[in-house]
Amino acid sequence: METQEFGDDRPAKGRVVMLVDNKVEGDSRVQKAAESMAAAGWDVTLLGLVRTGRGRSWKLGDAEVRLLPLKAPLAKRHAERHRSLLRRPLAYPPGPLGAYRRQWAKAWRTDVATRRASLKVAPHAVGSPAFRKAERARLAVAGPASKVMQRWIEFRSEQSVEAQKAGRRLQGPLDRAFTAAWKGAKGKRAWRRLEPALWDYELTYGKEIEALKPDLIHANDFRMLGVGARAAVRARAAGRQVSLVWDAHEFLPGVRPWEDNAHWIPGNTAHESEYAPYADAVVTVSEGLADLLRERHSLSTQPTVVLNAPDRPVEPLPGQDADPVPDLRSLCGIGPEVPLVVYSGSPGPQRGLGDMVEALPHLDGVHMAFVVPNPAAAYIKTLLARAEELGAGDRLHAVPYVPHWQVVPFLSTADVGCIPIHHWPNHEIALITKFFEYSHARLPLVVSDVKTMSEVARSTGQGEVCTAEDVTDLVRAIKRVLADPGRYRAAYDKPGLLDTWTWEAQAELLDELYTNLLSDREKAEN
Length: 526
Known about the structure:
α3 (97-121) packs antiparallel against α5 (129-169) and α13 (353-359) runs parallel beside α14 (378-389). This protein has helices at residues 28-39, 78-81, 97-121, 123-126, 129-169, 173-186, 191-194, 198-212, 221-237, 264-275, 287-297, 328-332, 353-359, 378-389, 407-411, 425-428, 433-440, 451-460, 471-483, 485-489, 503-525; strands at 15-19, 43-50, 56-60, 63-69, 216-220, 243-248, 281-284, 304-305, 340-344, 367-372, 396-400, 416-419, 445-448, 463-466. The protein is globular and about 105 Å long. The strands form two sheets. It has an eight-stranded mixed β-sheet with strand order 3-4-2-1-5-6-7-8, sandwiched between helices. It has a six-stranded parallel β-sheet with strand order 11-10-9-12-13-14, with helices on both faces. The protein has 21 helices and 14 strands. It starts with 14 loop residues before the first strand and ends with a helix. α18 (451-460) links the parallel β13 (445-448) and β14 (463-466). Helix content is 48%, strand content 13%.
């Protein structure tokens, strides 16, 4: 193992390359892992990506962050590259032909109309009487023919649009048959046909990882698992020993994908199944998910649980700005006496934000704040518009994320932390990041009746549980908490409750895992 040096002359424990398939900002777990492992003495480089524009780099404490520009030509679906004779046989092939034919038909119709007009207003310019007679005969045919041709071309163009839509949706019987055929033929290697865009990540990260020559690769989530596994295999084949840690944030078969199609879940789960055996250790976010992963992938040992807990409030690390924490209430334009319910995290219909909006008219005087990555996102705009329709637009506020080390004090001025998520497999099995953030902000909680979170909230007494997707019950729970918030805040006075729910405690587990992996490897080499 190579020895690296820090600026204060401490020898590094080893070189770690962390991989994530996003732009890092907004991913508090990944940021905290990179910072804390660098602070613990590891030489950490965190590789993320940008989908548009140029890459860039910066420091998180002693960790280096590099964003790589992702080129994704393999993300284009078959219908975006080829004509589909089975799906829409009359459609034009992808490319410029359809637009060319539409424009050509318009030009023909314009030409026919102009020639008719010329015969009427300037016959002498058209030609001799014999030519004009022949021209009238030609136009008698060309007029109806051009009209029929234009309609035919428009029909084929509409077919092309439908073919493209269907090809992107990938939800039809042809798509399901395609998926079943490749799963039957290739098994867990079928992702190469179902989700070839996974190779785009490999081709973006692969050479960068090799140049860094890591002792340990920490691959976050399912896409980076394959990238990390292939990098480790190549390194070992070249004579360098590299340990691979897979950090599984979600149970992939239970994910509600952004691309709801017949290929996404089968393709990505096949990819995960192929590369899970290459991991030397697995890390995940809850005991329930650890059990599921061990069973699904026949893991020899139980995954290490590293909770999505927040930082204990401290002074900013080097490289973190020392700007004052923004005031949530000021951003919402309200004073300290106004009841404020907050939701902080990624938005989406399955997260219950729509239920919160529908509850607003039944909560007189109560304001709600959505703390989200992009307050101008289309989905957030639909929620704000719906609040306007309900006559509560002045009581719903969308505000942007703050840096992760500011989250807890930022949220602490609210009266209630709300987590009204719907019943999805991944929602049932974990205490999600915002649960811990709300807890450290000492907010009374309103949570839906998803299994793990509702059980903890009931046992600690830190909040009320409502029925998921039931607006009436959500209103009841919020009113009950607002009626006696001190009762729920008192739960946080229990000795030791919040101590284990800190990232510092989780970082110790991760540091120990890294150390044991490299120690075991060195023993095996000797």
